[in-house]
Amino acid sequence: MKLYPECGPCMLRRVLMFCENESEETRYQVVREVCGLFSERISPDMSTTALANERNRILEKITKDSNPMKRLKEESMDAALELYPRLEERLGGLDEGERFRTALRMALAGNIIEFGARDHQVNLDRLEEEIMEIVEGKPEIDDSDEIYGRVKKAGRILYVTDNAGELVLDKIFINELRNYADVTVAPLSRPVQDDASVEDVKRVGIDGDILPRGDFIGVWFERTPEEFQKAWKDADLIIAKGMACYETLVDRTDILKGKVALLMKAKCRPVADDIGVPVGATVVKLL
Known about the structure:
The chain is an alpha/beta fold. The chain has 13 helices and 7 strands. It has a 7-stranded mixed sheet with strand order 1-7-6-5-2-3-4, sandwiched between helices. Strand 3, helix 9 and strand 4 (209-210) form a beta-alpha-beta unit.
């Protein structure tokens, strides 16, 4: 997805959130260098995620902190883990199709747990209520039935994660998917922003095949490990979570091949406008 003018201020605000516990001098340095990056690189030809990746490297170089969102990530994972038994209970007694759709919507609802998005706030105190609003609602774009049909025919599914806090909800859906096919989970290889890393996946108890996809948010295919690229090509279906996956994949028809199921909440206007939904809408879409 192309970079919109309003993406710059949003990215600057997020990097300030990432370094809010650093000294004032350090924060000034971060702002100066990030603004310098923006002045050189912002254009319609620049992708949002590529610019965010360069920004994150500046932050890490200055602060020497490779995991600035660690506390918030752990708090969000712990809040979701408290809900896990109750959410899992809600699947009991449902028929096969409804159980699948409910588990899918739980994973979709988990995408609300993202910190710093421009038009979105996370309220962990109301997490269960907000999750259930999405589970019991209807996505603005809803290809759930077609995805269910694909899952029933799939032999291999690749599951590309997004934020660490939503992993607990992903776990519910991954367990459901494993009733139908072999599932490989693909988090980031190391901490980046509040995205899920291998360490986070293990922390919430997701086991089985774990395949790191590198340290670039979303899926920058050419910069992923060869093993991930092979898993992508061999998969019958790919579940891709979140806006960064949309931003990095929407223009890549060469690798989408109609087998990528996007699950996300459109948390900012540029992404919402690009996909054609209102801000705050949820999306379950085959790409």
